[in-house]
Specification:
Order of helices and strands: EHHEEEHEHEE
CATH class of the domain at 4-105: Alpha Beta
Strand order of the largest sheet: 1-2-3-4-5-7-6
Number of helices: 4
CATH superfamily of the domain at 4-105: Gcn5-related N-acetyltransferase (GNAT)
Shape: globular
Structural class: alpha+beta
Largest sheet: 7 strands, mixed
Oligomer: single chain
Helix content: 25-40%
CATH topology of the domain at 4-105: Aminopeptidase
Radius of gyration: 15 Å
Strand content: 35-45%
Number of strands: 7
CATH architecture of the domain at 4-105: 3-Layer(aba) Sandwich
């Protein structure tokens, strides 16, 4: 299956944003303040996968400092999973980060998102810590060195 991949260093046009928000809502339940949160992030990077003008995957991250980037949010439409979309979005993001001087990429996930946890580990992330959030859910913090 063929997908088109696009990268944005700022908030993209409304049709892409709407596609991201709809997908985010379908996966995580809401997207009420997503654009507001994106607007407040330093050096925002958005990667999307498109199939027939439909956003089927996205990966959003931002700079924590000049060496470390945080891969913040992402997801793939349930009808397009198992086609390598998440893996490709991650590869594109990490290539950009290397080319732009970042040394470390960090992300967080939860056990309930096992496929993402497994993909992160397969792509070279190490579990560096866990914590329990305000909702009582265990979060897993992972980091990957971008220096070869």
């Amino acid at each position: 299956m063929d997908f088109e991949y696009y990268q944005y260093s700022s908030i993209p046009d409304n049709s892409i944003v709407e596609g991201i928000m709809n997908l985010h809502r379908s996966i995580f339940g809401d997207s009420n303040d997503l654009v507001y949160k994106m607007e407040s992030k330093k050096n925002l990077l958005i990667n999307v996968a498109i199939k027939d003008t439909h956003v089927v995957g996205y990966k959003i991250g931002y700079e924590l400092n000049h060496d470390k980037f945080y891969s913040w949010l992402g997801g793939v439409d349930k009808d397009f999973r198992k086609y390598g979309v998440a893996s490709k979005l991650m590869d594109i993001q990490h290539q950009y980060l290397k080319e732009n001087g970042y040394k470390i990429v960090q992300t967080k996930t939860m056990n309930k998102w096992r496929n993402m946890l497994i993909l992160n580990i397969k792509k070279g992330f190490d579990v560096i810590s866990t914590y329990t959030d305000e909702k009582g859910e265990i979060k897993v913090i992972l980091e990957k060195s971008l220096i070869n």
